[in-house]
Design a protein that fits this description.
heterodimer; A: 1239 residues; alpha/beta; nine-stranded mixed β-sheet; B: 348 residues; 10 helices; 9 strands; nucleotide-binding (chain A); P-type_ATPase_IV (chain A)
Chain lengths: 1239, 348
Amino acid sequence: MDGKGWERVRMARLGGSSASRGREAAQLRQVSSQTVRLGRVQPQAPSHRTIYCNDREANLLARFKVCGHIIYGVSIPRICWHLSYFFCKILIYLVALLLFQVNSVSTTKYNILTFLPKGLFEQFRRVANLYFLMISILSTTPISPVSPVTNVVPLSLVLLVSLIKEAFEDWKRFQNDIAINSTPVDVLQGENWETVSWRKLQVGDIIRTANLDGETNLKIRKALERTWDYVFPEKASEFKGEIQCEQPNNSLYTFTGNLIVENQTLPLSPNQILLRGCSLRNTVHIVGAVIFTGHETKVMMNSMSVPSKRSTLERKLDKLILTLFGGLFFMCLIGAIGSGVFINRKYYYLGLFEDVEQQFNPSNRFVVSILTMFTLITLYSTIIPISLYVSIEMIKFIQCAQFINKDLRMYHAETNTPALARTSNLNEELGQVEYIFSDKTGTLTRNLMEFFKCSIGGVSYGVGITEIERGQAQREGRALNEIQKSDTVVYEKGFNFDDDRIMRGAWRNERDPEIFKEFFRCLALCHTVLPEGDESPEKIVYQAASPDEAALVTAAKHFGFFFYRRTPTTVQLRESHVEKMGNIQDVSYEILNVLEFNSTRKRQSVVCRYPNGRLVLYCKGADNVIYERLAGTNQDIKRLTREHLEQFGSSGLRTLCLAYRDLTIDTYENWNEKFVQAKSSLRDREKKLDEVAEMIEKDLILIGSTAIEDKLQEGVPDCIDTLSRAGIKIWVLTGDKMETAINIAYACNLINNDMKQLIITSETDAIREAEEKGDPVEISRVIRDSVSHDLKRCLEEAQQDLHIFGQKLALVIDGKCLMYALDPSFRVDLLKLSLNCSSVVCCRVSPLQKAQVTSLVKKGARRITLSIGDGANDVSMIQAAHVGVGISGLEGMQAVMASDFAIAQFRFLKDLLLVHGRWSYIRLCKVITYFFYKNLTFTLTQFWFTFHTGFSGQRFYDDWFQSLYNVIFTALPVIILGLFDKDVSASLAKKYPQLYKEGIRNTYFKWAVVGVWAFFAFYQSLIFYYFTTTASENGHNSSGKIFGLWDVSTMAFTCVVITVNLRLLMACNSITRWHHLSISGSILAWFVFIFIYSGVMTPNDRQENVYFTIYVLMSTFYFYLTLLLVPIVALFGDFLYLGLQRWFFPYNYQIVQEIHRDEVDSISRTEFLEIGNHLTPDEARSYAIAQLPREKSKHTGFAFDSPGYESFFASQAGVYVPQKAWDVARRASVRSSKRTSQR
Amino acid sequence: MNVPTADPALEADAAVERKKKSKKPKYSRFTQQELPACKPLLTPTIVISTFALIGILFIPIGLASLSASENVVEIVYRYDTECIPQQSQDDKVAFIQSSATDKTCRTTLTVPKNMKAPVHIYYELYNFYQNHRRYVKNRNDKQLRSKEYELETTNCAPEATTVDGSPIVPCGLIAWSLFNDTYSFAIQNKAIEVNKKNIAWQSDKDEKFGSDVYPKNFQQGGLIGGAKLNESIPLSEQEDLIVWMRTAALPQFRKLYGRIETDLVANEQISVTIQNNYNTYSFEGEKKLVLSTTSWIGGKNDFLGVAYLTVGSLCLFLALAFIVLYLLKPRTLGDPSYLSWNRNPDRH
């Protein structure tokens, strides 16, 4: 029923005008090719393949056949794949397999032979490395002013580090592969199961497997009946058959094939396939035939197409590098022109005779300029920070492996899941997220419905206090008298309720026991739940379409109305305390009619006959629907219940009203006639059924209401609140219905009463009317018009409310409308509207739309987006966003496989974004700007020198100085900065979430920031060059001896190294001993180096050398005076700037630092973290409370949500219903169900 | 049919197994990013005291350097124009290049103040690019260092070999363009001895220029670049060459020529005889003769002293200015009202 709407839409689309169809198709195509890679089915080979089951030889034969075809080049060989066959018990397990391959899977990038060439090739695909390779080559030519050493050494070091990292990562992948490939599996060999390792599995093998690691959502898989008997090895070995199936592809939800057994052709559908990576839930093992193996399995074929993402910061970095190239070119141009002008034969001492080489030949100044250009490019190559990329990589790698993955605050003890950074590319992206797109089920909520409260006959029961109530109370400063639950309290999944007034039969003593009976019977009778397992209260398992229903029936059980058996016509209850206390009796109720739930009716009724002949209609449904149909009596109960409904709603509970109606036999008979008629009518059956239902669902008597807690994950409201104060806008994209979605949005603080809700829905009369007429073109047109109208209206309202009244807005839109709103012509409006809203809820959206919405914001608004989800339906959205986060630790692995980061709980987002993301971003920004600064400074000193060398391109520094500058003398401290710098502690970052906004605004890597660094680089380079040279002109000690070029340059270089390292220290917010070690180590390294380098004379000494310069220098006062003066003067500007900036224009983080300047960083105590799950400090909570709704919510919700309903029951009944996207999305609610309905 | 159900024992085992394999990360200060750290804040107090400290430190150093530099007595005499006879002023290059002209040039210098021995004699060249890329590398250190490498003339073109191919020692443009003006001094017709020993750095003499390397084929070509060398003296003793070959950083440089080992008294007239041989006229260069004493800081160079004084007083000034500013408009540390979201609460 749920899919019906979609069915209609699809019809509409199919039958729509060709223009609209074309547009839609184009849109779909566009989206599928750009954003949703996972869902796209790769082109298939033209033929199918055949596998002979349980017959290794036959499969082997076929393998040679195929080889032959390929070798002899027969045109498009009709490849005869072999098939093996199939086998099953309860589930058929089917793994895709390529003939040539055994099942071993390799995810490694390299092997020993290919490592070097392939690895190097990968490295040189980076522009920076390629650039330095070219510079290195250039520096071997006479054109170069520097020896090859200058560029080759850093380049090789950088390559070495990168290759080591690659090798390390590949080694880990290799280890992982080994572990997977050697998983034991039982293979049928003759008549016995033999355990072989996973990797030796072949196509056609019949295997028994108990547990395959990883997993997706719970899905029902069933073997063909024909194969049910082949469970035991003796029997299985007899099995011979042939499978014809499609070629391997990456579509997870489709499979077509046939099993041919004894000339019988049986169709195989996805229902009979198990994919690699699944695990079994309710059966110990299954027997099946292998169809695809290794890289042909669907999981592997999918995992290859995961797009790699680059962070926005890195893309901006590219721009910076490009700017540097521009600067380089400019500097070289100046130098080149200068050299052309300068060169002249009058400088006879330069030996510029007729036969001088072209570069210095004054007869052709143009050539001189061109060649000098190249000379200068080599000389100034240091302006491009060669070690930047490798440093960033290392920093990010450690940040991921050591900080994110090992953060105890993000470790979830219940599921034993630590956080996992699956890519190290995006750390800093986490610090700039502005939009979060969240799935609902399983992400915000636990998908765990618990019976929490109820109102019976105008009295509210249930002592529990929801998170939201607790928050409200705390905000208002009143103490909650939390009633301790009695010791005997029962707790079961789906039931979290206690009240001594009604539990354990106590309801008998209440004012009106009769109404309690009605209430409990309504709960126990009015549903579509199937009981399973032993018929004892402890062991029974309820199979329900939605967890809500199961929770209600479970509640009835605990109230003493135990529903234990359903037959086609009856429901049997074991009732306690009905006649008198302690009395237990089995009662069988005849169910005469079931008026099913659907989204228009929003209610569900049963007509049942008591054993004593009483005819009752029990009805439960949304409050507004029920209230419309109540009899006019008993206003008190109605009023009280209404109040309770509001209370429950504001506590974030999902409410349902219960009502009944006694029927006379006449009334019933009359009605039943019509009902039977309607039921058997061939046209408009549903509509007629609805109409008939209307006739009996009236004059109801209100019993009360139930309140179910859709248990939010721990800390979700607090987390959402913190994130929204951090300037992050959270959108909920869910497949749920609008009411449910709004309800959850209220519960987790996304929407509150202060906000104005803008609702764009397809549930309007006009649309419904059009849909009833059934003309697809008309439907399409009507919805389109309505969407267009709504968008315009909302946009107007939004602009008015937002700008004039400053009211916060929330947009709620459903999937059908979204489909039209995403049309290019409305897209701009939609974007504008949604950007104005503080929160957006999209309900009833398909996975594809989730991705579309994500890319709408990503591309349209150019903001940084993050998607978080846990199921397969979130995969496309996760991949479409800048950062994809998967919820790990539960069943689904698919979302995690597609994600960039995996966390166990939604609330960990707070740590991931506000702490890790923010720090990474700030650190990376500092690292990048610092790299930029230090290389610019260094190169500019060189540049100033050029002016004094007749633009000849003479190098100022020794080759080795220059080559080690980036990789030794200034390498480590910046990495330490990138790892350890901490402006505010983790707890402060969470306490002041607003600090995160600086990341969103990209405060630390703006051109202005870069400009300031550039300015000081410029200033410092002038100081270095002019101070050291100007001061060097005379003799410098009493012997009156004079310095040469290399003395001065050694002096300058010493100053540069010291200053640049000290400048780093000034950029640090927190200084650990690692900072001290690395900074003093770097400076020391320079001195050690120069002492040795200039102290040792080798036979093959360098030309024009720096021999003994440092000793010469150190024998003069000039050295010490300059060493003190130059760094201080150079840093003077920076210091002044930083001081003034903090004084007059402090950053927020600086104020926070000051507020907490005297506090010692709280060190997390290990024992505290041991608990693992209750980390939210009271403090954080009180902040959250401040943001809670100001007044009681007027919102009440109701709670039927069963998108997977249709196919769920269909498959229970053994009928195959094509799966819809919803079904895949939906995890079935019951994890521990022990069997399917085989009996 | 027989439906196998999950074995509870197995499941329990699995649970235990899972417990054992806890993936809980180990606590360490490193991974939890809680390394002990000091967190310096650039508060106004620190800014002010840093500036004050620098000022207090720098001003004395500056004064000391400056006074040391002031104590140095220096006589600078530019002679490149004056040493060309009147009739040759229009074509100085021809004059200097002609072997026939008499290049002796006499002048008198007055000693401004008492100059304590040793008085250093420098020549100073201007617009001479000893740091030109072609020039700097135009030498062969190996050849200079040892006799074995006599044939080593890489990089020395065009002054690498003679026409017949035998190597020039020392080869290269630097040696070839060796400065060849000479100076002699007399006071009241009494010649003052110029000590030309120990004008090069010891390390150069010991290691870079071999004591077994003798000049060979030097300045024998068609073009004479500069001074000739006595072929009987090893390079390690040729200090003029060694000094010359420690190429200067800038196109304006001084090089040590020798020392006068006697004190010069104020107002004494020194007559200087200059052999004006070196051609700086081609490239519009300048030549200067410098007589200078030294102090601990070296020759006369006010730069360091002035720089120290300027920076020091600037810092003191800033420190004072900030103190005033601080008194007038104090900045409360950690005032939450500075937080952007408190400043304009509407705008976020």
